[in-house]
Every structure is written in structure tokens, then in C-alpha cells.
């Protein structure tokens, strides 16, 4: 049987010695988060804000430990200032894996509105980013994005499309 | 334990010199945005110093990352009061993870000094009480310079995480850090032993 996307993520992170995983949770990321906590190779823990996680991964990299931040689209939207002034300015390969909310049948208008800010922000920061939509491309995109970030010392974002993860199921409008 | 209002108002540059003078084992020091890292720089550059040039509020998270990566090295985060206010949640994270090698210095002048000395919204807050409320039980105000040095020694000699909060006077910083982020990062990585290079550093 094919490995699910989150199992591939675990394997690729391990192969690239990405060890430290601070995150603010998201429903779609649940199986990945559970697998990371289960595996003693990883140090996965929650933080209060995504900005904090960017600082932690940046500090850890400079001291010799690789990390990656897990978040959802709305978490990314809180980050423009710290991404510009820390990993972009200092050339530190802060890696981000972002569960994409707000598109492909989103039921929450707030999430949909935030979604529209993500690509323009990534582009304005000139930050490497790739959207993963297919299981058969998962391993290649994860692995190459992580490697390139480390080799070039530049931050990068991997966006997990609902086409890959299934997203959060569309619910019907509740009319009270 | 001393109460916040009894703590002597001290000179940031003097405290930075006293801190740096106590560091004999290549301890890492992460200086927060602005005047905080300016006075760390002015106290004499060390390869183990990192100077933040933006990302207001991230001195403690960066220091936490360093501390987790190198549990045998002591790490100091030096952060301004306004900056810490922007990222108070990080104190809870530090308390939960409990890195034994991390110490946090809170530089409380009550204002955003670098932007013109405007009062912070924390006029009635007590940073030691906040840290303790987050679960950081080793948190205390430094009464004066002697007490500050004693507490720094305690951070170096015992397991943390520790928090030392100091009240500052209103003297300006002595000079400004050279603003060259990739150079700062490169020097710091060499200082941490995380990068080797044949390029002269
Ligand atoms: C997110 C963000 N908001 C505002 C600023 C502008 N700013 C830079 S330093 C600073 C004040 C820092 O205050 P504090 O940490 O208390 O240090 P002090 O200047 O008092 O030494 C402010 C408001 C900024 N750089 N980033
Ligand atoms: Mg201040």
C-alpha cells in the first residue's frame, strides 16, 4: 500500500536529519503531528505563536540542529515581519510546512480571506515555496525543497494542498 | 525576594559589561532588537554573541533554539521589556520545555526607548510575576549591581531555566551594532562550533 503523505513527510524529515519540530496545530496536520510525537527521533512541541517557532528553528540551525515549523495558512499570515527580518535577512534556512486552508471548498470565510494573502506574501519575500498536490510528487518535492534550503541557507515553504491531504471536509451552511 | 519597585535603576551598558565579564565558557548571548543588542555589542564583541536586527520579540525563542540544540552550553537571552511584551507566550513555552541551560535577562526601562521613549502598556505589570505565573519558578528582580552579578553567577552554576529582571535608568546606548546580518550569522555559527570554514572569519 502507498504510504500516506504524512508518513512520507516523516521519512523525508528523518532522512534529512530534521529533528526539531515546533508547531501550532491544525486539524489536517493531526496524523503528522501524532507520528512525530510517537517517534523518539523528533522533538515536536507546541508554541504559543508561529513567530516563536520561527525564532526557535532559526536559533537551533545556527547552533547545529535542523528544524521545521508546522502551521496552517492563518499562522503563516502572522509571519511576514519575522520572516523578512530573521531568516531572509540573516540567510537562515527556516523550513515551514503549511497546511493550506481557505481554498477548495473552504467553509470559513475568514480562512478564505487569509488564504489570499499567502502567495503574495511568499512572492514579496522572494521565498522558495512549493505546493504539493499529488501523493506521487510528495517525496521528491519534500526532499528537494528541504535539501535546497539547507544547501543555500535560505528559508522555504512547503504548502500542503487539500488535493493532497483532503483538507478539512466541507460542511453545509447552518441556518439557525 | 526583592519587589520590582525596590529594584535599583541600573545602567544597561554597565550591566552588559558585568555579564560579559562573567562568561568564561563560550556561553551564547542573544541580544534582542535595538538598544539591548547595541549595548551587548558595545561591551565587546564575542563570537558567541548574536545581535537581532528586527524580528522584535524573538530573542528568547532564538535563545531557546540554541539552548535545545546545545544542551551543554549556557545560553542567555537579553530582551527589552517592550519586546518581551510582544511575545509573552514564549515564557510559557520555556517553562514547559524547561531547558536547564537557558537564562533570560529582562531589561525593563518601562519604555520603548529606541523609538523615542514612549511608555509601554505594562506600567502596572511585574515581569518576574509574569514569568513565575508562566511556570518559571527561578525568576527574580536584581536589587542592584552586586545582586545582578550574584544572580548571573547562579545562572552559570545551577540548572535553569532562570529569569533575571532588571530595572534600567534612561541612559542611551553607547554605540550601534554593525548591521550586516549574514556576517553576524556566520560569526555566530562559528562561535557555536556549528560551522567550519577556511574563509578567514
Ligand atoms: C513588530 C514591530 N513593531 C514595532 C517595531 C518598532 N520598534 C523597534 S524597537 C522598538 C522598541 C523596543 O522596546 P524595548 O524592547 O523595550 O527596548 P528599548 O528600546 O526600551 O531598549 C519598537 C517599538 C518593530 N521593529 N517591530
Ligand atoms: Mg524598553
TrEMBL record, chain A:
Signal peptide: none
Gene3D superfamilies: 3.40.50.970
Keywords: Decarboxylase, Lyase
Keyword Lyase set for record: yes
UniProt superkingdom: Bacteria
PANTHER family per record: SULFOPYRUVATE DECARBOXYLASE, SULFOPYRUVATE DECARBOXYLASE SUBUNIT ALPHA
This protein's name: Decarboxylase
Organism: Belnapia mucosa
From TrEMBL, chain B:
InterPro entries on file: THDP-binding (IPR029061), TPP-bd_CS (IPR000399), TPP_dependent_decarboxylase (IPR051818), TPP_enzyme_TPP-bd (IPR011766)
Bilayer-spanning residue ranges: 50-69
This protein's UniProt keywords: Decarboxylase, Lyase, Membrane, Thiamine pyrophosphate, Transmembrane, Transmembrane helix
Ranges for region Disordered: 170-201
Gene3D superfamilies in the cross-refs: 3.40.50.970
Segments forming domain Thiamine pyrophosphate enzyme TPP-binding: 35-166
Basic and acidic residues bias (residue ranges): 177-189
NCBIfam families for this protein: PRK06163.1 (NF004813)
Stated name of the protein: Thiamine pyrophosphate enzyme TPP-binding domain-containing protein
Organism of derivation: Belnapia mucosa
Amino acid at each position: 500500500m502507498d504510504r500516506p503523505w504524512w508518513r512520507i513527510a516523516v521519512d523525508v524529515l528523518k532522512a534529512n536529519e530534521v529533528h526539531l519540530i515546533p508547531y501550532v496545530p491544525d486539524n489536517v496536520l493531526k496524523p503528522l503531528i501524532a507520528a512525530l510525537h510517537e517517534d523518539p527521533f523528533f522533538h515536536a512541541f507546541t508554541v504559543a505563536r508561529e513567530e516563536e517557532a520561527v525564532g526557535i528553528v532559526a536559533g537551533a540551525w545556527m547552533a547545529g540542529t535542523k528544524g521545521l515549523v508546522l502551521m496552517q495558512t492563518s499562522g503563516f499570515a502572522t509571519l511576514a515581519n519575522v520572516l523578512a527580518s530573521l531568516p531572509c535577512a540573516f540567510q537562515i534556512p527556516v523550513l515551514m510546512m503549511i497546511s493550506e486552508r481557505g481554498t477548495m471548498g473552504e467553509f470559513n470565510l475568514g480562512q478564505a480571506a487569509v488564504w489570499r494573502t499567502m502567495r503574495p506574501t511568499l512572492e514579496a519575500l522572494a521565498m522558495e515555496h512549493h505546493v504539493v498536490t499529488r501523493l506521487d510528487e510528495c517525496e521528491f518535492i519534500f526532499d528537494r525543497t528541504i535539501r535546497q534550503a539547507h544547501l543555500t541557507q535560505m528559508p522555504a515553504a512547503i504548502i500542503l494542498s487539500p488535493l493532497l491531504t483532503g483538507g478539512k471536509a466541507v460542511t453545509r451552511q447552518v441556518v439557525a | 525576594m526583592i519587589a520590582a519597585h525596590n529594584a535599583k535603576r541600573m545602567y544597561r551598558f554597565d550591566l552588559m559589561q558585568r555579564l560579559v565579564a562573567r562568561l568564561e565558557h563560550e556561553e551564547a548571548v542573544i541580544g534582542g532588537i535595538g538598544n539591548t543588542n547595541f549595548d551587548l555589542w558595545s561591551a565587546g564583541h564575542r563570537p558567541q554573541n548574536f545581535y537581532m536586527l528586527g524580528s522584535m520579540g524573538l530573542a528568547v525563542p532564538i535563545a531557546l533554539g540554541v539552548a535545545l540544540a546545545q544542551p551543554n552550553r549556557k545560553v542567555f537571552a537579553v530582551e527589552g521589556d517592550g519586546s518581551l511584551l510582544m511575545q509573552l507566550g514564549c515564557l510559557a513555552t520555556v517553562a514547559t520545555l524547561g531547558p536547564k541551560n537557558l537564562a533570560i535577562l529582562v531589561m525593563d526601562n518601562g519604555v520603548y526607548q529606541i523609538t523615542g521613549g514612549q511608555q509601554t502598556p505594562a506600567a502596572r505589570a511585574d515581569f518576574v510575576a509574569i514569568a513565575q505565573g508562566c511556570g518559571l519558578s527561578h525568576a527574580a528582580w536584581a536589587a542592584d549591581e552586586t545582586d545582578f552579578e550574584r544572580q548571573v553567577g547562579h545562572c552559570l552554576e545551577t540548572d535553569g531555566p532562570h529569569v533575571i529582571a532588571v530595572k534600567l535608568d534612561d541612559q542611551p546606548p553607547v554605540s550601534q551594532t554593525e548591521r550586516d546580518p549574514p556576517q553576524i550569522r556566520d560569526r555566530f555559527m562559528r562561535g557555536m562550533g556549528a560551522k567550519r570554514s577556511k574563509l578567514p572569519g
